[in-house]
Amino acid sequence: MGTGSALAGKEVPVVGSDVVRWIDLSVPSSSNIAAADAAAPPTADDRASCFVIGDPPTYLIWKIHKAQPQTLELLELTASKEFPRVGLRFTFTDALCPFAFICKNEISGASRFPYLLYVLTVSGVAYFLRIRNVSAYASLSIFPVNELLEVNVRGYIPNHTAAITAVTATVGGLLVGTSDGSVFCFQLGVVDPSAPGFVRELRDESGISRLWGLISRGKMVGTVQELVILELHDKKFVFVLHLDGTLRIWDLASGSRVFSYNMGIMTMEGATFVRLWVGPSYPNSSIIPLAILYRDTSDENSEMISLYSILYNFGDRIVFSMEPSAQNIPLEEGRCLDVKLTLDKIWILKDDELVSHAFSTNIDEVEALSYALQEEFVADQLFQSTEHLADEILRITHSIFSSSKDDILPFVSSVFLRRLLLPGVHHNATLYATLVEYSRHLGESELQTLTADGLKKEILSLIEHEVGSEKVSLLHCWKCFFTRYFHNWCKNNALYGLLVDSSSDAVGLIRKNSISLFRSLEDIERIVEGSSDEVSELTGLVDIFDDDLECEILIELLRCVASFSQQLGKTASSIFYESLLTTTVVSSEDIVCYIVKILETGYCMSSPVLQTSTSGDHIVVLEKELADHKSLRKLSVDMFLSLQGLHKKASAWGRILNVIECFLKFLVPQKVIQKYDTEMSSNINSSVIVHTTYQIAKVMFESAWDFLLFLSYLVDISGQVHLSHDDINKVQLELVPMLQDIIFEWLIIIFFTITPTAAAVTEDFNSKLSSLQIDNNMGKRLWNDKLGRCDFTLAFIFLLNVGSSSLDHSHFYSERFSNVQSFINRTRDFISWIICGQAGGSSTFLSRSIDLAFILFKHDQYGAAEQLLTIAEAHLLKEKTSQSIQDADGGWCIRHHLLGCCLLAEVQCGLHGTQKDKKVSDAIRCFFRSSSGNGASVALQSLSDDLGIPYLGFSGCTSIAEWKLQYYQWAMQLFERYSISEGACQFALAALEQVDEALHMKDEKYLNNSVNESVTTIKGRLWANVFIFALDLGRYYDAYCAIISNPDEESKCICLRRFINILYEQGAIKILCSNKLPLIGLVEKVEQELAWKAERSDISAKPNLYKLLYAFQLHRHNWRRAANYIYMYSARLRTEAALKDSVGSSLMLQERLNALSAAVNALHLVHPAYAWIDSLAEGSSVVNEHYPTAADNDVEPQGWTSSIDIEKLENEFVLTSAEYMLSLVNVKWTFSGKHGALSDFADILVRNNFYDMAFTVLLKFFKGSGLKRELERVLSSIALKCCLDKVESTWVEEHSHLLTSAKHDMVVHGSPITVPTIPPTDRNSCWATLKLYLEKYKDFHGRLPIIVAETLLRADPKIELPLWLVQLFKEGQKERLWGMTGKESNPASLFQLFVTYDRYAEATSLLLECIDSFASMRPADIIRRKRPFAVWFPYTTIERLLYRLEELIRMGHMVDHCDKLKKVLHGSLQNHLKMLKVDSDDAISVS
Fold first, then answer.
1. Does the global pTM surpass 0.70?
2. What is the pairing mode between strands 5-13 and 164-170?
């Protein structure tokens, strides 16, 4: 027989099988058998199997890991559904045998417990579990005791020394084989373990002699090696393989042996019988296939499988017989892991491949077919197959791009990252294990929830951290990461067993953490990955050639192309593919040229980027460069010789190029006319179709790329191989464009199959309702959960739009796993649907790309739709460089229209910053281009409203201008809906340009359009929109320009009002007072709007509109109006201050002071004849003229009825200042205007120690006698405060408060004092205050010292007057000797006060002092001494003093003291009179 095996198929992983959440269930046990008492074979290897139950079938997969032999994992699969996300994990108290049997419950309670599970522990304890649906165990952690049966089968085996060596089960029975050759059947779950008949032994004897231990067992047989149960014609038979080669068949129902045969006579000498497999019987025949695994005792690695055929006949009695011939299959390499028999094949799973053999009677013609495992694909993608592939990525990238590190390294990372996340390569458990090795603290469940973008960020972050911390190259980090990842991938995807469905011939593979199915090869895969002999056997390929010579030419061509592929093809295709999907500085055409140049001249190794990114020293780098150069030179020589030989064989290059052209047609995706009537759901079969599509598209893409590279190289060396000019033109103008189309189509298919979907955006309210299940839309929620997962690619979205193919109606609706060939047929249908749609509707794939983009947009895959349209646009530019790229049918316009919608939708998904700005800019450009293309009006208006994109909503445009006007307005509304004011503003301006031409407004006043709007109305609306969008963008100048450009006066006024409101809200209202806005013609309207808003705004709002109006008028030198507005502000403050507390009132009073001061300052700038403002009611006439006033709101206007000049403002300023000071000490007072109010107000100020303010009020509001009277009252009040302290104060504290002059008007138009006078607390300060103000204001009223002294003496007759007060009476006494008539405060006045208030000693002392002063004058002063003395000392007062002294003496009060005063007084008077007489005599004598 032949030993070689041809590649026939590949493994295809099932999407989602690597992400399973296990529900852990602990199985309780009542057995006390120790685990050390092993009675059954332990689990030495990982083991798994699949049971197919029911119709339509349910696939139940169990796994037992050798690292965790006490646990069993159970998965329930259905081909018509997605891979389950939840499985059951049973944990037993003891290790399990490598066996489990699952079947449909046919005993009892099938509705609650659909399945039954049989297992056996190594200690001999059998478990029978009734299994519910998986969802029933969500809240359980311990398996219910009443749902399991536990039996120790060792207790039922007579020979207690015999170990259990084999086990199997069937519905209602568990069979075990022992080391002494016995087979026991336990009716587990059917008969109670304590009941008779629960266990029976399969023996040759019958009748009573079958009792255990009583009769000899007859002929001894070897240890039971394997037990297999097969059902034939509703009878169950047990196939028993013994270690000595004996094969026995037992009728399970009767317990009788029906067949016995010694297999040792048919096998090689020295072989050990290891395993037995029994296949299903052939239909319409009586043949049972049988397979036995042998192992050489001398070499354990030498294994062989023999296929046998057993004939059976169910006539009068059951007869089995063995066919004499056997089919031996040596397992030359790899260890046998599992074997499955189907009707016509045997499937052998080895640790490196899956091999199938067809059953054949001619053992020399056995055909072996090999199926590639996923390890080969993963190793190739992770650069593990050859060591230098990863280095080539960097070398090629460096040769293509510039030497800048910023360009090269990110591109290299992008290539590595894309390979890592490919379907089949990306594996959650593997990635988690790899991240753990790098000490990344990320939980496995958290990792599973990450989207594809999240995974990319996490991995790139890890690589960047490694580059920074380890100080190694980026390439080295990626290579280390890939090596670890591949090791973990192999570890987490170890081979466990086969999955076979005989009813559909489906074959699958059970791995540690995943499930996969197998498919056959596509024809192109047989050519590329098979041998050259297979090329001539492909019917579809042979039919396109005329003779055998062309087939030979093709074989030689394929060998030449394979040489290119082996040299640079695989790594170069990755770079080429990445450049097509990403934005690079180098085009794909340039990349081809660079790679051809590399093939001719080699790599450029001089860059520091490359040298620092490769491992090893400089010598190693040079050796590598020399080796590469030598390899490339050898390739050039071999290629030259091969091409010359090929040219010699074909006689002309034209024939060779024709062969290439014919073969390229073989690479074109097949277009099959199909009719789809329903949608397809996402299931396991569909996930296999998607991955199969990727595998085939990848081979097609790489094959087309290899030919493109080959043809480019051929043209480059055309002179060496004698390629004519016509041949070069054929290559460049026909073959290369054809290849570019092929590459483009397969590129898009690959893009769909490997690009993860974008996560669902749940920002809108309806989506949030859906996620909360409020609307009970479970399907939508499950769909959103799948979006964004790395394994859920865009192709799954397209599968929802694919129904049954007319070629194979059952393809898309199989409820079973498909067979190896069916997957290829279904994949062809799917590829055909992608390329040409339903029934071949699209003429080209470029037009088909629009339909696909609509589907993506409808499912919220905006980024993918954008990328698809961008790739299509780039290919279109490449395809139509010499002609217009716009289609006559408007496809170009639809493409850009849809692209603009995609870009806008992406912006709504959360983009920010420069990325958002770029998307918006691109969207604006796309819409403008779309509106201006050929056939745009017809094409875009024909789009239906069920495509998922924003609907235009208008039709019937008769002219290009009218179309653009409507389209630009639609675009404006679209951008406005998305809150993108930049785009909306541009389209509003663009629409304005089209209004006149579109609506023919040059000669007509009204338009014959659908809304019958005037041009003014339309322009007004558009300019209003421009105004709104400019405001949103903060472009106040543009917004104002839109206002003044608006021809609709009503709209203009509304916009102006909103403009002012927005400026006010944004705190930019001050712009009105600058020179930035030309307010020509709108000054009055702006003033009216500001005044109207000021009157109705909160007075405490910031910024204050009254102040703005004040500044607004000042800016225009309108001082009176400025004063008017700021005074209105003061009046508003006065009105609202009454409602505030003390703190709020103080702040408002301070604001009033500022406002009044500003008003005074403004009026000072006006000519004195016009320095006045209108009263409050009249001053608001600007507002009343156009807007409702406060009176309209039932609010009585407050104000004065006459004009207000500076003096009145200053008066109000003084009163407000006083109110403000009182408010600081929580005293509230408001001027009522009543008689005496100001006097009371001054008293309040004095009581609160605000003396300066009190005197200011008096000086401001009182004149003449009224002022004197009020000064007397105030100083009397101050003096009364001093009477509380009977001390004489000589301390003076000088103050300088509000008053600046005692005799002149004070300046009140400056800023008010904000710091109040501190109330005096020291008792000396009262006297100091009294002295200060008495000295300051005595010139206003000469009697003030008298009033003060009298007040003090009246309040306290015994008080000692301060010395400074007495001195005030004595000031200027010498000067007043000649003219004292007009002076009121003099010693005489004080003398009278002393006498009046019985202060005789002070009166006497003052009199004596004056007399002595007069007597002590110099002779030169004799004239002055002759003045009448009575002026100073009235005789009546002196007489009254003497009289009072005599009266006191007479009454006996202070007799001595009074007598002494009297004597002193008499003595002084006598001397004075004598001196006066002498002076008189002297005067007479002189005369």
1. yes
2. unpaired
